[in-house]
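Final report, section 2: Outcomes. Of the targets proposed, TetR/AcrR family transcriptional regulator is the one most frequently requested by collaborating groups, and we therefore present its record in full.
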Amino acid sequence: MPKGMTKRRPQTLAKLLDAALEAFAENGFGGTRIEDVCERAGYTRGAFYSNFASKEELFFALFDRHAERVLERFERQAAALGTGPLTVQDIAAGLADFDQDERTWYLVTTEFTLSAIRDPGAAQRLAEHDARLRVEAVRLLGELLTRAGMRTRDGVELESLVRMLIAVREGALAQSYVEPGVLPPGSLERLFLPALLGAVTEAV
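The predicted structure is given below as tokens.
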């Protein structure tokens, strides 16, 4: 990112990010040019390069913005559960909740992940961003399990559990987005996440 900040820069950044999200979702990361993003946002290439060094850097800015919003949503959901004790079913229900923006982000991040698997440098950067998000997810899940009077069983790391929960969500979403009329988002998660959490946790 370049040095310096102007009053209009946050607005410019937001418009570029919104435009990139739309373009990546419609045309894919590989099929989107920087010019396409600029045209959607109403800015020149100069404005783009004043904020991002590359299209990949733009993606990671989108990733961090999305991660922040996801964590905020989970924080709100946790707060909505009140201050009393929780059950595994309560936690699973929160994990199975999705908003309407999830499909757009799924399209964007899935394609980028595939391209990153072919590019070790991009894969490393993606892993670093994933790791930062996972740290917060581990913290939140740990707090919820504590409220439920539960802990992970011996041999089950909380981070590994978070990885598995992410895998379940993403795999289930893939099936839901292919057959939305048959399998609405959250259906498999609501059915199986309580059993998964119950199998790998125990009372304190």
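The two ends are 46 Å apart (CA to CA).
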